Amino acid sequence: MLPSDRGWGFGQPHENSFVRGTALCCCYASLPQSGSNLDNILLDTGSAGTIFSVDTCMTIGLHYAADDPVHRIGGVGGAEFIFTKQVEQISIGELAVNNFIIEIGAMDYGIEIDGIVGMDFLTQVKATIDLSRFEIY
Prior knowledge:
The protein is mainly β and 137 residues long.
């Protein structure tokens, strides 16, 4: 995300930014407990939940544990099994939620992304998405 005068921007779309009618933005999601910033995140107001790729999570030290709840979720692309994990914090720019539950799954959606930030996060932080300026604050 890029700093701006009103909040944090998510960059101008590039030629491959629109996949199946969805704007692919380059957000940065910070997971402080892993010391990692993820920079290939889809901001999706059509997604109820926030999900991260299991492959990405494994590289930053977020692994499945026997007590992690497993769920089956579905959407336009079909259904998949995911597990949930509470993380210390998730943030996009200045927008942050502590003790946030994320979903972790295969994310085999036909596009290369590390995660999707959905409405669960966006509503908790009361985000404003300004599409004319490509900013979120």
